[in-house]
Amino acid sequence: MRFNPLFLFLLVWLGTEIAVFAIVVHVAGLSGAILFGLLTSLVGLVVLRRVGLAATLGLRDKWSARENFSREALFDGSLAALGSLLLILPGFVSDLVGLALIAPTIRSFVMDRLQTGKFGTSRGPRHNPQTIELSPDEWTRKE
Fold it and tell me: Where is this region: Disordered (predicted)?
């Protein structure tokens, strides 16, 4: 019998969510777990509103200035929105993934990995547009 990979992923995700919920209930109690879940959903709503407003204003400004839309900027906003939607969904594992996607450094890492197609560990220098190359005579080390 062969299962669809998406079905298997969702099944594992659901099992993980239930196991983590049971752990949180054991540690914080049922009312604490429910309260924590509600709080993360409220945080997700606030972040989604903020991300949506920032994306709308940014697109409006680019539209009025007749500038081209950057694929990276649109994808970055989409990942942030996905992160906030994951915060809204019930479940602590989805909350952790959502919190990670809200962080700009994680979003840039995910975008870099999706563009290069490499999600494993890589050896050697990575292409990072925020890296500044200096020659040995342009810097000194201070102890």
Answer: 120-143
